[in-house]
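ok so i was messing around last nite and threw this chain in just to see what happens. nothing serious, just curious
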Amino acid sequence: MIKALMIITMVSGAEYTAQLPSMDVCMKEKAVVLSQNDVSSAACIPSAEQTTSMDKFKEMMNMFQNLVDDMQQRALDESPKAGVRG
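result:
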């Protein structure tokens, strides 16, 4: 799921970030943030969820297992039926 990252720059030059659940929420909150006197600017940028190497590995292994299962099922479906004469 794509989230949003709000980057806020204060008049003092300090920068802050806030992770928000969506771009819609970020845009709504941006108006509230910009109405504050100490805020110089605010911007919303897309931010994808971070996944770990282990998450990627598990996803790849699940895809591989699904492939093996499909191949086994196809082999069973295509094999001649035992005891059936044509």
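not much to say yet. The chain has a mean pLDDT of 85.
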